[in-house]
Amino acid sequence: MVLVSRGVYAWGSSKVVRKFEDIPETYVYVQQALWFAMKEYNKASKDKYTFKVVQVLKSQEQVTDSLDYLLEVKIARNMCKKFSGENENCLLPQDPKMQKMFLCTFIVASKPWKFELTMLKKQCKDI
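The line above is the sequence of Cystatin-13-like; the predicted structure tokens follow.
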């Protein structure tokens, strides 16, 4: 419910200063938004393994009362278990039965001046 109301505010009544424009995936705030999106995805996932971004297909930024990042990514299950604490250096499974991949769209609102990140949209489909 919080995400829906925040999303309506961001795309509805909030003044859009600059609409979504392409931005390099290497940009520091895009990387921060990707990290946050995957942290939230893995926290909500019922899978016992974590997922990580394997390809960034699109990264865009919109300026409203926050910096909104639209991220289209391919994510894949890796070999690290969810609560192992290890996520950065996890290998992808070689066993085809263990492989799982999704195409996801995330929109993350960032207010770096307040150290705030909020997930506005999380939509994934099997690929």
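Note on the example: The longest helix spans residues 28-44. Residues 1-13 have pLDDT under 50 and may be disordered.
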